[in-house]
Amino acid sequence: MADFPLQGIRVISFGTGGVIPDFGKILGELGADVIKVECRENPDFMRTIGADPDNIAGFNESNRNKREIGLNMKTEKGQEIAKRLIKVADIVGENLRGGVMKSLNLDYESVRKVKPDIIYISSNGYGSGGPYSEYQAYGPMLSAFSGLLSLWCHPTDPYPAGANVPLPDHYASKMLVVAALAALDYRRRTGKGQFVDMSQVEMAANMIGEYCLEYTINERVPQPVGNRCPYAAPHNAYRCKGNDQWCAISVFTDAEWHSFCRAIGNPPWTKEAKFADLPGRLKHVDELDKHVEEWTLQHEPREIMIVLQNAGVAAGVLYRPAEILDDPQLKWLNAIVEVDHPVAGKRLYPGIPFHISDVTLPPSRPAPILGQHTEEICREVLKMSPDEIKALIEEGVLEVPTRDTQKK
């Protein structure tokens, strides 16, 4: 049997949405046994954004590499089974609204009585304590609350117009992995568990630290600059030959500027004094961008990327999500993997974005359908008898799938 980095570590996930599910997915990719807990009455809310709860793209991406137990935690028996799982686990993860875990008798103080050395990961929208601790929070909203959306737009936009990508969620999940690994090492050395409390709002605010410093040190309120940069020019996404084709180009130093000029054939405008140094290029950036785009419109984006990269200038095709699947570099890296889901079928997902020397990581497994591994977990982890499992299913404490989990 392969020896994976986190083999032997068990994680109980009470996660919903993005942060804790993605956190668990990463630990599962490293070989941990991640058990997701949910039930039909209170499913992961990501299951509710489409017609079929077992065929939701966002859910199936964030919940790979897990087993699932269908468990009604509103019942006393359900809470006791959850504690039995925690007793044989190393990590608990939750990102439910403030106060929910306490109402289920599964907050840290209750759990540590069952498992004193547990590592308890809590990531609520606004953290534990404080005036907002019980408020709900979602990724795109956190981008607004943190100040990110005030910067992630163009100066001429009539309102903050960032992308509907829950960046705070994804950053938070990765930071929690770091915290969990640190807590595991601390427990290895001391025998003591940890309570890790991370506010997603705090994580979101952490993403714009340099802009906060711009205000606190220089007393300047940062304004949106779109694709431009205060210390590079040209620095933008430029239209290219073809229908709605674009390429991003970044020129930081004067040496890169001279390389850029040579790469595009040294047209007359590149010799004008106003473009000779960075301050001049920044001062005349509107005119500069027009000149650059006159050149890019004559070429396809991949051609531009190759020509400029060979000249030592940063440039890259502006891809859409569907287009990255065919990129030769990502294919070489095996960045996209195919996973066969019992309901969704074969789909392409992002793979593990790093490689560890002399270690083969486990293959990515499909997200579970509701209650898919209930009987397996009860039998193998909790050592329940078939009769006990059957009785708990009949009582509505345990839930099993209502559909076949095997691929036809």
What report would you give on this structure?
With 408 residues, the chain is α/β, with parallel strands linked by helices. The protein folds into two domains: 10-206 and 333-399, Rossmann fold, CATH 3.40.50.10540; 235-318, formyl-coa transferase, domain 3 (2-Layer Sandwich), CATH 3.30.1540. It has 18 helices and twelve strands. The protein has helices at 19-29, 57-62, 76-87, 100-103, 108-114, 139-145, 148-151, 167-190, 200-206, 209-218, 254-263, 278-283, 285-296, 301-310, 321-324, 328-332, 374-380, 386-395; strands spanning 10-14, 33-38, 67-71, 91-94, 119-122, 194-197, 235-240, 245-250, 314-317, 336-341, 345-350, 398-399. The strands form three sheets. It has a seven-stranded mixed β-sheet, sandwiched between helices. A three-stranded antiparallel β-sheet has the order 7-8-9, with helices on one face. Helix 1 (19-29) crosses helix 8 (167-190) and helix 8 (167-190) crosses helix 9 (200-206). The longest helix has 24 residues, at 167-190. It is elongated and about 85 Å long. The mean pLDDT is 93.
CATH architecture of the largest domain: 3-Layer(aba) Sandwich
Number of domains: 2
| Parts with pLDDT < 50 across at least 5 consecutive residues | none
| Biggest pleated-sheet summary | 7 strands, mixed
Q: Note the run of SSEs as H and E.
A: EHEHEHEHHEHHHEHHEEHHHHEHHEEHHE
Distance between the termini: 28 Å
Number of helical stretches of at least 4 residues: 18
Our estimate of the beta-strand percent is 5-15%
